[in-house]
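User: Quick one: structure for sequence A, then sequence B.

Assistant: Sequence A:
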Amino acid sequence: PIGIFILTQDRKYIRYKLLLWLFMAFILFCGIAHLIEATIFWHPWYRLSALIKVITAIVSLITSVALFSYAPKLIKFSDDLKQRNYLQYLIDSIPHPLLIIDQNFNITFLNNEFIRCTKFEYSDLMGESAMQLFPDKLKKEFIYYLKKGFLNQENIFRSFKIQNKNGVITNIEMSLVFINHLGDKEMIFSFKDLEQSIELSLV
């Protein structure tokens, strides 16, 4: 249960957390039941043992019903996961920093190059708002470009600024490309570090 709890903490992108919590409860009460059975020779707490077994049975029943009701979604999720893994492989093969933003401005994909360039951890960005990547004074402007791209289904290219995890601001040439992936409207955000490009051109 502790491992599942740590896994689900602060990870908004994990689906079906209710099932995980039910499994946590089931494992916990099973463990307590076994512990009581192991000590019942020294401490005859039969009523407590019976109560824990009843609770375990109830939690087990609820978990079974929940698992059965979620079965179609889990099967679909498995298929989606295969597609996501393939898409993640393709994104990671791109040598430029890139991420995908949904209509709620949350990050749904990002590649290793983006993590390397911005010094963020994967968990800092995945499922979180893309707004943390920009200085406060530019957040409204970036939202404007996102909304414009989603509304008009158009691609946007312009100079902008991005900030890394340490708050260092960099001038970039950004591109926002509209995609419609399996009915989900998203924007691919990638950028080119203008300052690094200037340095390379001077070498």
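Sequence B:
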Amino acid sequence: RIDGRGALPSGGIETRPSRPDGGAMTTFPVHTIDSAPDGAADALKGIESRVGFVPNLAAAMAGSPVLVTAFGDMQPTLGRTTLTGLEREVVALTLSHANTAEYPLAAHGRFAVMHGGSAELVDAVCAGSTLPDARLDALATFTRVLIQTRGHVPAPAMDSFLAAGYTAEQVLEVVAQLGYTTMANLAANIALPPVDEAFRRTS
């Protein structure tokens, strides 16, 4: 059951403890461009060119050339949406919070700040609280409803989202961002890569 803000149930999800040594499981090694399997190195190079380094999550995804290539290919595609960079990060943070995905929460929190979001806004998204910006709050609320209802969004929730100034096209763009972030969330929760220093909060 969801409340009026699309709040997700707080129970029922048990997270695995972090690795004591912060290292990668042997099953899912954190690759370098040189150690990546055939077909994965080019994807890592593309991600490096956009981010400035190879994030540990992408490096762990490289164990599957198909996964890391799909992940990398979606990055420039999502950049062509009509959603702003900050709006995409709000969607990503909302899903990462729902999936208790530690690494993506850290990464998307940093990207949100890079796109102009405040630390207070990031904290509010991660807590499922009301956002200080009404339009972004409508986006986070709609995203929670979309996740919880598995796409069977009630008409009042859809109407509220559109009334906030979003379009039908942007509804589908939220779906695209959720698809991308779902890949990241599931891979992160399976492989448990250590959070990169660049994504860690300094205060």
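The mean pLDDT is 89. The two ends are 35 Å apart (CA to CA).

User: Thanks, that's what I needed.
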